[in-house]
Amino acid sequence: MLGPGNEEAAREALRAWPDGLQVGGGINDKNAKEWIEAGANKVIITSFLFPDGKFSQERLDAVLNALGNDKERLVIDLSCRRRGEDSWFVAMNKWQTITDMEINQESIQKLEPYCSEFLIHAADNEGLQKGIDERLVEKLAQWASIPVTYAGGGRNLEDLETVKRLSSGKVHLTIGSALDCFGGSGVKLDDCTRWNRAQAS
């Protein structure tokens, strides 16, 4: 929910598919429970955890407390920007502000006890439809022991296969602007659905 009018659209979507969707954008300790009660399966938080660009354990504890300490209801978004060959830092405020948290094994392990999964956009690849950050996908598979969804640059079914191969199936890929339902020409939603079903069979 990154702009005006999105809250009502989100509520409409939750009414259409209760307990089937995750909601993010402006989530904090005051409204997290409200969105779960509105039908969200999980809430996603990023910027709230980084006041002035610095990670706040106190704020993370407050959100989890608001959710009844049910970490299964919480997704931590660690969307990031690359800083060097093997270095990524969490970015917030539509990825314009670089925070003090580097994504590495230490930070992943520090946060895992507080959430059920991670959402990680590679902001430098996001929306370009020019391919994924393969090195980041490899590292996420090594570092994380809970589900991870990667976003950024996904273009086609081959990228789904690449992420599966690089991560040994531990990291999931989202495809956004390349999907035909979003006006893209790279891949059809129906083809992605068939690919997903094939993995489960």
From TrEMBL:
Keywords linked to the UniProt accession: Amino-acid biosynthesis, Cytoplasm, Histidine biosynthesis, Isomerase
Enzyme class: isomerase
CDD domains: HisA_HisF
Gene Ontology MF, one: 1-(5-phosphoribosyl)-5-[(5-phosphoribosylamino)methylideneamino]imidazole-4-carboxamide isomerase activity
SUPFAM superfamilies assigned to the protein according to its UniProt record, in alphabetical order: Ribulose-phoshate binding barrel
Residues forming coiled coils: none
Catalytic activity, reaction form: 1-(5-phospho-beta-D-ribosyl)-5-[(5-phospho-beta-D-ribosylamino)methylideneamino]imidazole-4-carboxamide = 5-[(5-phospho-1-deoxy-D-ribulos-1-ylimino)methylamino]-1-(5-phospho-beta-D-ribosyl)imidazole-4-carboxamide
Pathway it works in: Amino-acid biosynthesis; L-histidine biosynthesis; L-histidine from 5-phospho-alpha-D-ribose 1-diphosphate: step 4/9
GO CC annotation, single: cytoplasm
Subcellular location: Cytoplasm
InterPro entries for the chain: Aldolase_TIM, His6/HISN3, His_biosynth, Isoase_HisA-like, RibuloseP-bd_barrel
The protein's Enzyme Commission number: 5.3.1.16
Keyword Isomerase: yes
Main location: cytoplasm
GO biological process: L-histidine biosynthetic process; L-tryptophan biosynthetic process
Similarity-based family: Belongs to the HisA/HisF family.
PANTHER family cross-referenced by the UniProt entry: 1-(5-PHOSPHORIBOSYL)-5-[(5-PHOSPHORIBOSYLAMINO)METHYLIDENEAMINO] IMIDAZOLE-4-CARBOXAMIDE ISOMERASE
Protein name, as recorded: 1-(5-phosphoribosyl)-5-[(5-phosphoribosylamino)methylideneamino] imidazole-4-carboxamide isomerase
Organism: Sodiomyces alkalinus (strain CBS 110278 / VKM F-3762 / F11)
